[in-house]
Amino acid sequence: MKPRGIRNNNPGNIRRSKDKWQGLREEQTDPEFFQFVSPAYGYRALIRTLQNYRRLRGCVTLKDFITRWAPPVENDTAAYLRAVCQDMQVPDSWVPDVDDRETMCGLAAAISRHENGVYALMSDVESGWELLNEE
Questions:
Q1: Closest to 104 measured CA to CA, from 89, 125, 120
Q2: Strands (E) located in the chain
Q3: Alpha carbons 43 and 12: distance in angstroms, whole number
Q4: With left for phi above 0 and alpha for psi between -120 and 50, is residue 23 left, alpha or beta?
Q5: To the nearest whole percent, how much of the chain has pLDDT over 90?
Q6: What is the pLDDT of residues 28-71, one digit of tens each?
Q7: 20-52 burial, b if ≥16 CB within 10 A, otherwise e?
Q8: Fewer CB within 10 A of the end CB, N or C, for the chain?
Q9: pLDDT score for 79
Q10: Do 11 and 39 contact (CB within 8 A), yes or no?
Q11: What is the pTM of this model?
Q12: What is the SS3 assignment for 98?
């Protein structure tokens, strides 16, 4: 069986909230996590959330982003951070450019890999980035 995040087209496993994301499935049958109509919309939401972490929450370093994304109350945040750093070949003190396509697609893919245990299809990640620019 495919991982939950892949089945839901929600590669970042974004929890359900009052947010009205673009591309949500009309019927949300997962009680905990959003379900999107395509992986691209799931990646769009993941990337937009990360951008908002910088703009609205003051996250600067990769460690800041991952600590917020995967808080210790429900994750092994240190292991999560190590995995993302290894995937991206950067230190935890790295400061990502949230407006750079390559940076954000790489970060979204690394998060998706950790969340789901499988490599992201970069075409899906890049399609998510492109959806951001259609607004």
A1: 125
A2: none
A3: 7
A4: left
A5: 96
A6: 999 999 999 999 999 999 999 999 999 999 999 999 999 999 99
A7: ebebbbeeeeeeebbbbeebbbbbbbbbbbbbe
A8: N
A9: 97
A10: yes
A11: 0.96
A12: coil
**CA distances (Å), 35 to each of 28, 29, 66, 93, 125, in order?**
6, 8, 22, 32, 16
**pLDDT score recorded for residue 135:** 63
Report the alpha-carbon angle 47-48-51, nearest 5.
90
Report how far residue 76's alpha carbon sits from residue 37's, in angstroms, rounded to the nearest whole number.
29
Report helix, strand or coil for 17: coil
Alpha carbon 82 to chain centroid, angstroms: 16
pLDDT value, residue 115:
97
**Residue 86 CB contacts under 8 Å (≥ 6 apart), including other chains:** none
